[in-house]
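Reviewers of the previous submission asked for a worked example of the structure-prediction workflow described in the proposal, so we include one complete record here. The input consisted solely of the amino acid sequence. No template or homolog information was supplied to the procedure at any stage.
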Amino acid sequence: MAEDSSTPVQIAPADGRLGVLCVGLGAVTTTLLAGVELARKGIAEPFGSLTQMGTIRLGKRTDDRSPLVKDFVPLAGLDDLVFAAWDPYPDDAYVSATKAGVLEAHRHLEPIGDFLRGIEPQTAAFDHDYVKRLDGEHVKTGTRREQAEQLRADIRDFREREELDRLVMIWAASTEVYLQPSAVHLDIDAFEQGLDDDDPAIAPSMLYAYAAIMEGVPFANGAPNLTVDAPALAQLAIDKGVPIAGKDFKTGQTLVKTVLAPMFKARMLGVRGWFSSNILGNRDGAVLDDPDNFKSKEVSKLGVLEHVLQPDLYPSLYGDMYHKVRINYYPPRGDDKEGWDNIDLFGWLGYDMQLKVDFLCKDSILAAPLALDLVLFMDLAQRVGMSGIQEWLSFYFKDPQVAPGLYPEHDLFIQLTKLKNTLRHLMGEDTITHLGTEYYEGIPD
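From that input alone, the workflow returned the following structure tokens.
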């Protein structure tokens, strides 16, 4: 049923221009930029975007109220978005999009060629040790402290140059090598001392996150890097009143897992093993071909089933499950990723069954609308005054960031319910629990 409504939360208006700072000007970012501009010109529709095409039910089912999300919540409009990017390669967005090969040139690049050519990346904070398969040539120099200050200056210059009212930053760059929190990540004093000492344990992604938070800019992490989930930066975001969210865009194979695994658990079907294999040939695939970078992605992808299936609660169903993930770099595929899953499951009396899924998808086509939604929702969170981890945005991530002591929710549909109930709450509408007395007259209070 719907819970008692509350007074709408005070939300600052989405007036003026919203600057979108993209870390990385590769396949995901150029697909995002092109899609937004094509939508603004009425050439294409923003399929895959909840903020642009999704609806939200309000009140009882009999009320017949289901407005578009963008008409219900005061989000920034697409016409208000202004883009900038950093990248370790100097190619403008048109050249980069052409090289990425995601979009058809004659249909989706040429009509907006001037727009894309006008977006040239700023030099990137880059460390070859964190992305060993890339050789950055368009990079900042100096210590980590000096690079962080250069990034802060870039943010301020973009704000002033484009006369922006608000900003959001999103990481859409490569996966960094696997990193566990160490002493330099535990509190902000240690972190800032690490900046001064040029500590190699501070990853480039952390420099961007630090710069964003210090400049009051919301930060969303679309890769499995240790970034704003480092305790120092998570606490800094709270101290500075800045929203953060992550990590790792939930696109192909993991998206499928967060639908199928809840189905198995809901029906009490056991899983003996789940083998997942991926092939892809874009820049992300090349980066993940290095074992240290693959480790970051592997950890992000492996945690999904553990949290959804809860083997500690259902040991006879999932306690002995074998889960394996493989990612293989295969250049001929480009951005056309193939995710293949073999699932060995069992049901009544222990009889075995199998399910096989072969998802042939375009990774950036799936990721771009997620990036757009995160930009708009992170800006909303900032205007509401929400700070720190935005768990209600777990819907968008493979490895959702949560407060210390909590476990992440991975079930796609529970995540969607949390997201929409958050929007209902912000707008003073009833949240929905689906136990309405109008349908269950015989249930006592």
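The longest strand covers residues 270-280. We consider this example representative of the routine output the project will generate in years two and three.
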